[in-house]
C-alpha cells in the first residue's frame, strides 16, 4: 500500500507552536536578535573563509529602531541575508533551520562562530506580538533584495524589494492593544533595553538603538549679565550599545580580576557582599559547557525555608534560556549561584523538556564533582574560610546525607565538621578517625543543645576521662545524619548513651551484671515508683561523679525524641523514646537507697522521684511536675 503523507493544518500548527513553545512573549526579541547574530556570524565566517579581509566585527552591529506612530519595531542586521529561495525555505517552512544546515555543512566554523539557531521555530515567536511581519533581505550571494510579508497564520508573500547592502531588516507591526494586553510596551526604550540585557547581553555583536536623552542647552544657565538662572533642557537622540557583549565566564580565569568577578556576582545576584569563593569550569567532551559559579559568603535570609528556590542561570551560546534552572544543582549544593553556558542546548526547549535532557544531567554530574573538589581544596588550603562556609551552609550538607538515606555519604562525609570533646574547635571525621585510640571500636558522639552542655553530660564523663574523643552534635539534624551514614571508614558511630560502649572489660561487665542481679528488688521498687515514665531502671558503670543519667533503648534517642516532637504533630502522634534511668552503682546515693530498702519503701519512692527529675534536668528535658519535685526536695531537707 502506498504510504501517505501526514497532512498538517499549517495555520493551526503555527498557532499551537507559538503558544506552546513559549511561555513568555518578551522572548520574541531574543529570538530575532539571536537570528541576527547567527546571520552576522555566517557572513563573518564566509568572509574569513574566502580570504576577504576588511570586515570588522564591531561594525557588524544589530540595530533596533522604534516608530511609535506607526507602532513598529525593526530589528536589522548586516549579516548574510537571504535569497528569495532562502526566504521561502527558512521562513516559509516551520521547523526548517538554515542555521542548523550551516553548522552541519561547516564543521570547521566552530571556533570562529557561535551559531545559536537549530530548530527553525524561533522566528515565529514574532507573531506573539506582531500582527504583521515584513522581512526585507539581501543575500551576500547576490544583489537582489526580496521582501517576505506575512500576517501570521494565513500564509506569506515574497516580492522584489530594495536594499543597498546585504543583511536583513525585520519590521514588526505590533498587535492592537486590548484590555488585557498592552503591546505598546515593546515600543518603550526602557523595556527593550531591559529585554536585551536580560536575554541577549552576551551576544557578541553590538546591539544598538537610538536612545532619547536630555541635555542642558549650552549657556542657558546664565543670563545676559552672567548670573545663574534656571537652565533650559533639550532632548536629542544618541545611538547606544545596549549589550555588554563578552560574557565574563568565557574569559580565562587569569584575564579577570578578583574585583571584576566580585562586582559581576554582586550585580547579577543582588548580594551586598562579595562571594566567599569563585569557581570557574569549562569542559569539553560529553558535556560541553562553561560555568561560573559562586559560593555566597552568607546564606540568604530565606535559605533554610520553603521559599528558597535553587538554580543556576542557564545560557545557550550566551543567550539566556532560564533564570533558575534547578536541574543543574543537586539539593546538597543548592547554595551555589552562578551561570552555565552550553552550546549543546536549544533556546526553545521548555522547562518540562529540560528535566529530561540528558545533556543537562551530564552537566549536573560534572558540576557536582567540581563543587565538591573546590570545597575540599578550600578545606585543605584555607581552613578558616571553609569554617565560615560551613557555619552558613554545613546544615545543607548534613541534610544531603540524611535525605539521601546515606546515598550522598561518599560525596559529602569528608566535608562535614563537628566540634569535639578533645579540642573545642571543628574537626573533620577523618581527623577524628586519625586521632582514634588504637583499641577504639567506635566513633563516639553525644547529641545535645550546645558543646558546653555536652561537655558536662554525665554519660560522657568516663569516656572522656579514659581519653576517648566524642563528637558533639548540636544541630537537630546531626544524629539523623550519622544514623543515615551508619559508619565512617569502617568505624561505626556510637552514641555515648548506648548500652554497650565497648570500653568495659569482661570482668567489669560481669561485676555490673551481678550488682544488677543482687539489687533486683530495689531497682524494681524504683521502677514501680516511676511507672511508665521509664521502661527500665538499671545500675551502670558508665557514670563517674554523677549519681544518675537518662538514656534511651532502641532507635530513638532522647535528642531525636526532642527534635521529632518539636515538629507539628497531633498529641497522639508524639514520639516517645524508651527511657532508661541509670544509677551509678558506685555513688553514695545508691548506697543510701540500699540502706532504705527493704524497710522504708515510701522513702525509696520519694528518692526515685528526685533522682528521675535530676536526670531530666541534666538532659535538658522539661520537668513534668516541678511542684512535686520541690516538695520532695524540701521534705528531704527537713528530714521528714
Ligand atoms: N536575520 C536573518 N538573516 C538571515 N537568515 C535568517 C535570519 N533570520 C532567520 N533566518 C533564517 O531562517 C531560519 C529559521 O529561523 P528560526 O528563527 O525560525 O530558526 P533557527 O534560528 O534556525 O532555530 P531556532 O528555532 O533554534 O532559533 C534560520 O535558520 C536562518 O537560516
TrEMBL record:
Residues 563-640 are annotated as: C. ATP binds at residues 31, 35, 77, 82, 90, 96-98, 118-123, 168, 351. SMART domains: HATPase_c (SM00387). Residues 1-351 are annotated as: A. GO terms for molecular function: ATP binding; ATP hydrolysis activity; ATP-dependent protein folding chaperone; unfolded protein binding. GO terms for cellular component: cytoplasm. Pfam families: HATPase_c_3, HSP90. Its main location: cytoplasm. It is found in: Cytoplasm. It comes from the Bacteria. Transmembrane segments: none annotated. Residues 24-178 form the Histidine kinase/HSP90-like ATPase domain. Keywords: ATP-binding, Chaperone, Cytoplasm, Nucleotide-binding, Stress response. The keyword Cytoplasm applies. The keyword Cell wall biogenesis/degradation does not apply. Belongs to the heat shock protein 90 family. HAMAP family: HSP90. Homodimer. Molecular chaperone. Has ATPase activity. This is Chaperone protein HtpG. It comes from Anaerofilum hominis. The lineage of its organism: Bacteria, Bacillati, Bacillota, Clostridia, Eubacteriales. The gene is htpG.
Amino acid at each position: 500500500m502506498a504510504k501517505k503523507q501526514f497532512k498538517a493544518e499549517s495555520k493551526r500548527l503555527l498557532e499551537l507552536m507559538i503558544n506552546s513553545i513559549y511561555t513568555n512573549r518578551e522572548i520574541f526579541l531574543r529570538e530575532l536578535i539571536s537570528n541576527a547574530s547567527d546571520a552576522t556570524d555566517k557572513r563573518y565566517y564566509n568572509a574569513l573563509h574566502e580570504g576577504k579581509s576588511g570586515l570588522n566585527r564591531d561594525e557588524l552591529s544589530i540595530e533596533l529602531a522604534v516608530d511609535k506612530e506607526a507602532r513598529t519595531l525593526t530589528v536589522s542586521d548586516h549579516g548574510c541575508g537571504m535569497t528569495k529561495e532562502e526566504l521561502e525555505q527558512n521562513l516559509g517552512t516551520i521547523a526548517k533551520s538554515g542555521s542548523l544546515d550551516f553548522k552541519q555543512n561547516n564543521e570547521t566554523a566552530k571556533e570562529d562562530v557561535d551559531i545559536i539557531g537549530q530548530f527553525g521555530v524561533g522566528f515565529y515567536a514574532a507573531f506573539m506580538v506582531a500582527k504583521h511581519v515584513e522581512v526585507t533581505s539581501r543575500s551576500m550571494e547576490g544583489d537582489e533584495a526580496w521582501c517576505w510579508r506575512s500576517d501570521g497564520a494565513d500564509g506569506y508573500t515574497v516580492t522584489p524589494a530594495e536594499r543597498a547592502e546585504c543583511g536583513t531588516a525585520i519590521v514588526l507591526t505590533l498587535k492592537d492593544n486590548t484590555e488585557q494586553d498592552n503591546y505598546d510596551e515593546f515600543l518603550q526604550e526602557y523595556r527593550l533595553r531591559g529585554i536585551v540585557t536580560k536575554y541577549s547581553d552576551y551576544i557578541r555583536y553590538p546591539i544598538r538603538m537610538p536612545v532619547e536623552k536630555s541635555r542642558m542647552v549650552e549657556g542657558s544657565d546664565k543670563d545676559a549679565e552672567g548670573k545663574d538662572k534656571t537652565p533650559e533642557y533639550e532632548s536629542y537622540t544618541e545611538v547606544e550599545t545596549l549589550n555588554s557583549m563578552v560574557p565574563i565566564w568565557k574569559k580565562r580565569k587569569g584575564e579577570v580580576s578578583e574585583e571584576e568577578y566580585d562586582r559581576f556576582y554582586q550585580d547579577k545576584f543582588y548580594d551586598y557582599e562579595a562571594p566567599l569563593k569563585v569557581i570557574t569550569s569549562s569542559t569539553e567532551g560529553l558535556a560541553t559547557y562553561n560555568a561560573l559559579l559562586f559560593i555566597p559568603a552568607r546564606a540568604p535570609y530565606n535559605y533554610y525555608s520553603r521559599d528558597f528556590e535553587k538554580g543556576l542561570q542557564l545560557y545557550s551560546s550566551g543567550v539566556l534560556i532560564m533564570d533558575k534552572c534547578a536541574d543543574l544543582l543537586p539539593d546538597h549544593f543548592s547554595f551555589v549561584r552562578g551561570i552555565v553556558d552550553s552550546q549543546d542546548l536549544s533556546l526553545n526547549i521548555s522547562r518540562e523538556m529540560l528535566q529530561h535532557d540528558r545533556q543537562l544531567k551530564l552537566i549536573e554530574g560534572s558540576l557536582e564533582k567540581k563543587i565538591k573538589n573546590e570545597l575540599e581544596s578550600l578545606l585543605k588550603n584555607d581552613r578558616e574560610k571553609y569554617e565560615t562556609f560551613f557555619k552558613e551552609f554545613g546544615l545543607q550538607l548534613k541534610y544531603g546525607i540524611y535525605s539521601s538515606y546515606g546515598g550522598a555519604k561518599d560525596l559529602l562525609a569528608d566535608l562535614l565538621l563537628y566540634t569535639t570533646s578533645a579540642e573545642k574547635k571543628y574537626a573533620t571525621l577523618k581527623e577524628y578517625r586519625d586521632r582514634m585510640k588504637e583499641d577504639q571500636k567506635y566513633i563516639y558522639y553525644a547529641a545535645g543543645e550546645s558543646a558546653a552542655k555536652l561537655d558536662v553530660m554525665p554519660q560522657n564523663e568516663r569516656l572522656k576521662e579514659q581519653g576517648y574523643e566524642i563528637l558533639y552534635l548540636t544541630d537537630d539534624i546531626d544524629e539523623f545524619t550519622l544514623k543515615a551514614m551508619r559508619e565512617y571508614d569502617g568505624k561505626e558511630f556510637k552514641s555515648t548513651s548506648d548500652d554497650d560502649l565497648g570500653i568495659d572489660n569482661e570482668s567489669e561487665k560481669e561485676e555490673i551484671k551481678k550488682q544488677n542481679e543482687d539489687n533486683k528488688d530495689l531497682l524494681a521498687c524504683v521502677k514501680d515508683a516511676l511507672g511508665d515514665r521509664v521502661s527500665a531502671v538499671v545500675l551502670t558503670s558508665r557514670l563517674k561523679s554523677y549519681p544518675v543519667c537518662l538514656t534511651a533503648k532502641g532507635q530513638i534517642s532522647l535528642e531525636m525524641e526532642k527534635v521529632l516532637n518539636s515538629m507539628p504533630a497531633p498529641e497522639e502522634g508524639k514520639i516517645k523514646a524508651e527511657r532508661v534511668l541509670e544509677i551509678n552503682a558506685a555513688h553514695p546515693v545508691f548506697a543510701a537507697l540500699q540502706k532504705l530498702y527493704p524497710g522504708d519503701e515510701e522513702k525509696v519512692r520519694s528518692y526515685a522521684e528526685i533522682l528521675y527529675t535530676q536526670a531530666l534536668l541534666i538532659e535538658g528535658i522539661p520537668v513534668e511536675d516541678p511542684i512535686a519535685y520541690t516538695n520532695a526536695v524540701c521534705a528531704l531537707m527537713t528530714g521528714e
